Amino acid sequence: MSETELPEAPAPEQDELDEDDRLRPEFVDAVLDAVAEGDDEAARALVEPLHPADIADLFELTPHEDRGPLAKALKDLLDADVFAEMNDYVREDLIDALTPTEVADLASELDTDDAVAIIEDMDEAEQRAVLRALDPDDRAAIEEALSYPEESAGRLMQRELIAVPDHWTVGDAIDFLRGHEELTTDFWEIFVVDAGHHPVGTCQLSWILRTPGNIAIADVMKREQTLIPVDMDQEEVALRFQKYALISAAVVDSANRLVGMITVDDIVHIIQEEAGEDTLLLSGAGDGDINEPIRLTVRTRLMWLVVNLGTAMIASSVVGVFESTIAGFATLAILMPIVSGMGGNAGTQTLAVVVRAIATNQLTDSNTRWMVMRELRIAAANGAALGVLIGIGTFLIFGRADLALVIATAMFTNNITAGLGGVLVPVTLDRMNIDPAVSSAVFVTTLTDTMGFFSFLGLATLWGLHA
Amino acid sequence: MSETELPEAPAPEQDELDEDDRLRPEFVDAVLDAVAEGDDEAARALVEPLHPADIADLFELTPHEDRGPLAKALKDLLDADVFAEMNDYVREDLIDALTPTEVADLASELDTDDAVAIIEDMDEAEQRAVLRALDPDDRAAIEEALSYPEESAGRLMQRELIAVPDHWTVGDAIDFLRGHEELTTDFWEIFVVDAGHHPVGTCQLSWILRTPGNIAIADVMKREQTLIPVDMDQEEVALRFQKYALISAAVVDSANRLVGMITVDDIVHIIQEEAGEDTLLLSGAGDGDINEPIRLTVRTRLMWLVVNLGTAMIASSVVGVFESTIAGFATLAILMPIVSGMGGNAGTQTLAVVVRAIATNQLTDSNTRWMVMRELRIAAANGAALGVLIGIGTFLIFGRADLALVIATAMFTNNITAGLGGVLVPVTLDRMNIDPAVSSAVFVTTLTDTMGFFSFLGLATLWGLHA
């Protein structure tokens, strides 16, 4: 990557990062070797030029047991900004080693939202100790933030923002900004409020810069605003930022009073997390955080696997019904998993598309019927193609037209089942307010397994197939 | 949602949107009914208050065949901003019905990046016709953008930006902004350049507003900048924006000269797409766009299903080897799919976690070995638990200790296979520069199917199990 430290110098090569902005393994090893040898100075010299986000990455790439010594060696390079960028589990690890006063010092350097992110994961006794060590203003702000539900706008927002009365001129606003050193510098828009502190408009800083000072701010501001209710879920906040291409947005309480501001840089990682979690949830891998303690990971995954073991046994009991057919013609056992497995694959495809479309608000009540028809047509086309292929293959390998016809029919039937199930299961769960990403896969694979065994072995039995 | 149109009035209820910012089906129906009845005025009156993003959604929720009449009824409400917000396929649909001059008119109203997004999907003859209809400046800008690779920073950037020389004062910059009406108003930072037009610093607008006019801009600007090479892939651009919490960034050519600007609102939907595509790619559902023509969707999905049919037949041939064992003991056919299926589930969990960790740069060469050990430990724990469970279940149902022991051992073995395969397959593909999300699943499920059948039936044969 190209970062210019000084305008005169050519952009220095950043040896510590590869072309994808990842820390090079040799760099990580060099730092850890220095720490292991007790050469803290060398470690600090290596890490000093890094961006806080990269220092956070360094801790994530460091084995669990080496994080403490690394933190000790880096001392104040490990500042509040680094903690704000760090993975939750890795941060908890390090925070556990600090005293409440040290945590309070870190928190007081940060905007409310970042301070809350650090404090919200601590247990209650520790939280109280840290809050006591904070100065009263910071404490009040953080306590209020903690009073909102987890993953709500109230936790995400910062209280540091610029709000000006609607009777001011642009010049008044500029004088106010120049005259108050204590105000935040991290803002991209200013909010215009009425006497009751209700937001009535938003002003991009570029508009203020482009407008003569004597113009009323009410004539510059945009009156249509996208306001965020303080109890809104962070996933909805993220979708709203994305849909309306927001840079920042005012957060309002139930009386529509301005209580905070959310900026897009706090939203970007939520958009990324929420968009990425479908894969993990569909597979039953929980939040899939690689820094999660192994015990928690095993518990999450095992729960899902045990549920699937139960459904697999149900599907297998269908095979049990046809035990005598199989005993008379063992070739059926060879082909049977192909029918169920291919149904599972087709169902997973439909499921992936539908779950994604629901999560991004593209699939709504308005187009559900259209979506079902669409997936049915796709399933019919794919089912027919796969049926013909497996039919031909079976005939060529086993030389039996009856077996070929049975497996082709079963394959087509199971594809239709997969297409229908792949849409109807997640849509139904969503209408019942159950997250379709979490539970759909279990139902759909049970459906395609059962239907795969039943259609293939059932047809074979009806047809009287035997060796 | 709460939008205030006029500060005096209470926030009007937005009847057209539900609580998740989705258009209500009744609203969509009302608009389409009005169009069907030829009452264009009524349709326009309903749609007029909507945000461009919502008008774009309306077209996406409208059945294919009704989109033309809807566009005709809405006339100029269907403006450039609406096209910029629209799904690619739906936009192509509508753009196809326009003349090159009409498309050129739309494009000239937009920033370069949005204009390019509209034009890049047209076929070459149409592109040329549209470019001819543009005025020379716009044409040059768009032609240059099109000269960069698809999905690169050059396509994403806008050329409308504010750059000022490094010898100016803050006051000079403000005078420049006030004195030039033709400049863009959509910017959040200004870039400071040297005589060779190389960026030497970035200035947030808030800093300019907070600084007295006589201060040199070089004393206000931040010298550490994150510069984006013009040929960088959009996925890397998105990760960089996210990692360093950028609002906007300068784009530079190979000589490090400032050529454009990317703002975070253009990146947000890329972050969302790139993060969400893993689920779709892992399942072989392509880009999973529900507006894609059915023919393309069938082709994408069928290709993947056919590959899987091939691997399923390979796995089944393993069953074929043990045909006589099954013929002698058909109960094995009942239990066999449980072992292979559970291995597939466990493999999918590991795969989902690993693919996500690779995509977000969390899994790098520095921690691959640690990750393999982590997944092995998880697989051992889950495999042991599932082995005990299925062993007990088998003993209770079939009353045979030998069968229970065989399936328990096979289950454990297949979980270990799944854990190892789930890490090693995507890591290896990634090192070979193959997207692990696209190809991993085929390899891993083939592995778990084959190993599931082989370990279970092989052990049963070795043990000499029979009815």
TrEMBL record, chains A, B:
Tell where it localizes: Cell membrane; Membrane
- One term of GO molecular function: metal ion binding
Keyword set includes Cell membrane: yes
Keywords, ordered alphabetically: CBS domain, Cell membrane, Magnesium, Membrane, Metal-binding, Transmembrane, Transmembrane helix, Transport
The record's section on Pfam families has: CBS, MgtE, MgtE_N
Q: How does it sit in the membrane?
A: Multi-pass membrane protein
Q: Report the PANTHER family cross-referenced here.
A: MAGNESIUM TRANSPORTER MGTE
Binding partners and assembly? Homodimer.
> In its UniProt entry, what is this protein called?
Magnesium transporter MgtE
Question: What is the species of this protein?
Answer: Sphingomonas melonis
